[in-house]
Write a structure and sequence with these properties.
This protein has 2 domains: about 280 residues, Beta Barrel (Cathepsin D, subunit A, domain 1), CATH 2.40.70.10; about 150 residues, Acid Proteases (Cathepsin D, subunit A, domain 1, Beta Barrel), CATH 2.40.70. By secondary structure, it is mostly beta strands. Strands 2, 3, 4, 5, 6, 7, 8, 9, 10, 11, 12, 14, 28 and 29 form a 14-stranded mixed sheet that branches. The chain has a 5-stranded mixed sheet with strand order 15-18-27-19-26. Strands 17-16-22-23 form a 4-stranded antiparallel sheet. Bound molecules: 2-acetamido-2-deoxy-beta-D-glucopyranose (4 copies). One 2-acetamido-2-deoxy-beta-D-glucopyranose binds next to loops. The site of one 2-acetamido-2-deoxy-beta-D-glucopyranose (NAG) has 2 residues, from loops. It comes from Cucurbita maxima (Pumpkin). Keywords: Aspartyl protease, Glycoprotein, Hydrolase, Protease, Signal.
Length: about 475
């Protein structure tokens, strides 16, 4: 059985505009939605009216967990449209678009094994929905210039291809997103903003599968097209957010806004990168520094280390992976290693893995480090049966060969803070079932935000490694295709 796919996602390496594509991607506004489009001026006027100085903190409802044989992903609940309906979307810091499955789409999942109810977004049943045409600002700036062959009635289309081979195609719509604004300790009120997002018209086979199916993906990248950038540019929020993915109880905390507690040490983001990349300096196994070629962390070569919540595991290039695995097993000479699903190194072990295996510490610029314990990088697939979470990116990826990518395997059970205003990222080990404190920029007040769990993770052990291992792969390419 194929394990590869599953949950999914991640990051964008290429945005390219195809001026010739297949013709079935043309959506004609007049035929389907006669009279519903609005001019760009109307959008702008609307935005100016709505723009006020009310920067606030947002509390996103989170569910899911990072265990590779359970859901392997984290998702959030957001409202879209008027009247608002709820949508469950995978949170992915490795991509830049929010999209949801739309009414009438081809191969959209109708049921999910995650125990959530799926909903199709229907632009014509939301009174605040507007289609985005190819001549509008959002479209031309997303594609970096005028769209070849654009006519006033043609919609702005998108296509996103993720690293596991899955893809979504559709067109952009603008509508209200309804979120929970933090207004007190453990207290929120509904707030909304207007954003452009993708209306999924056609999903690839993997995104249509019911295992781990969701309504869409919420890209938390820093491009102008992401929800966070759009809300920030209309003055609603600051471009700062944090997640604490709880692999013990499921769900966790996902907040937009300045986090004042816990304090985290930070490292600069590598500039001019499509993803959240940081500079790695060294790797320690136990208390020994791993001996690696000097150019292994060279940023010209490697563009840094990608931090990506949309990927379940962690990927290391051959040159790091091989010596790391050798060191991990150096003290365990009697173990019989075998490969499961052609991808995972597994073994039987009946002791406490934290006693039998070394901790691994990654060191980053500005003295930020990330210590990963054996019970975090090893996962169990049956009693006493363990597999290694580290993956060899040389063997895994196609175009992204040789990358270093840290996914939920190492990000969970930590408060990870992305400060796009200051271009830093930081983290600290944290109890994601506890709470954090955020600042409401509008009033200056500091409020406590607690964890959420949209379902009980323990009740949803959807499968074993053989049927359901999510080796979520990375998004290699994002193609925004266009047709004329
Ligand atoms: C959005 O906010 C406005 C103003 O507060 C409110 O009138 C409207 O009902 C809200 N819309 C949704 C979908 O929540
Ligand atoms: C993103 O938006 C900012 C502010 O609106 C603008 O200055 C910048 O040029 C935009 N970036 C791109 C790549 O379009
Ligand atoms: C971001 O930078 C500004 C100006 O340098 C500084 O005042 C602020 O404290 C920084 N914010 C954080 C969260 O570090
Ligand atoms: C984490 O926090 C929760 C809620 O405060 C608490 O019940 C739990 O015991 C804490 N877990 C650990 C390991 O401290």
């Amino acid at each position: 059985m194929e394990i590869a796919r599953l949950a999914v996602v991640s990051f964008l390496l290429v945005i390219s505009l195809l001026s010739t594509g297949d013709c079935n991607l043309v959506f004609n506004v007049h035929h389907k939605f006669k009279g519903r489009e609005r001019s760009l001026e109307a959008f702008k006027a609307h935005d100016v009216l709505r723009r006020g100085r009310f920067l606030s903190a947002i509390d996103l409802n989170l569910g899911g967990n990072g265990h590779p044989s359970e859901s392997g992903l984290y998702f959030a609940k957001i409202g879209l449209g008027t009247p608002a309906k709820d949508y469950y979307v995978q949170v992915d810091t490795g991509s830049d678009l929010l999209w949801v499955n739309c009414a009438g789409c081809t191969n959209c999942p109708r049921k999910s094994d995650l125990g959530i109810e799926l909903t199709l977004y229907n632009p014509s049943s939301s009174s605040t929905s507007n289609l985005v045409t190819c001549g509008q600002d959002f479209c031309t700036s997303t594609y970096d210039g005028p769209i070849p062959g654009c006519r006033p009635e043609l919609l702005c289309e998108y296509k996103v291809a993720y690293g596991d081979g899955s893809s979504t195609t559709g067109y952009f719509v603008k509508d209200h997103v309804v979120l929970d604004r933090v207004t007190g300790n453990f207290k929120t009120e509904s707030t909304n903003g207007s954003i452009v997002f993708g209306c999924g018209a056609q999903q690839s086979v993997q995104l249509g599968a019911t295992s781990a199916a969701l309504d869409g993906i919420l890209g938390f990248g820093q491009a102008n097209s992401s929800m966070i950038s759009q809300l920030a540019s209309s003055g609603k929020i600051k471009r700062i957010f944090a997640h604490c993915l709880d692999n013990i109880n499921g769900g966790g905390i996902f907040a937009i806004g300045e986090v004042v507690q816990p304090k985290v040490r930070t490292t600069p983001l590598v500039q001019q990168q499509a993803h959240y990349n940081v500079f790695m300096k060294a790797i320690e196994v136990g208390d020994e520094v791993l001996n690696l070629p000097t150019d292994v962390f060279d940023t010209d070569l490697r563009k840094g280390t990608i931090i990506d919540s949309g990927t379940t595991l962690a990927y290391l290039p051959d040159v790091i992976y091989e010596p790391l695995i050798a060191k991990i097993f150096a003290r365990q000479t009697g173990l019989k290693l075998h490969t499961v699903e052609e991808q995972f190194t597994c073994f039987e072990y009946d002791g406490n893995v934290d006693d039998g295996f070394p901790t691994i510490t990654f060191h980053f610029e500005d003295s930020l480090s990330l210590t990963v314990h054996p019970h975090e990088y090893l996962f169990d697939i049956a009693s006493n049966k363990w597999c290694v979470g580290w993956q060899n990116s040389g063997a895994q990826s196609r175009d992204g060969k040789d990358m270093i990518l840290l996914g939920d395997l190492v990000l969970q059970n930590r408060l990870v803070l992305y400060d796009l205003e200051n271009q830093t990222i930081g983290w600290t080990e944290y109890n994601c079932s506890s709470s954090i404190k955020v600042r409401d920029e509008h009033s200056g007040a500091i409020y406590t935000v607690g964890p959420h769990n949209l379902y009980s993770a323990s009740s949803v052990r959807v499968g074993t490694i053989s049927s359901m291992l999510l080796s979520i792969l990375l998004l290699l390419t994002v193609l925004h295709s266009f047709t004329n």
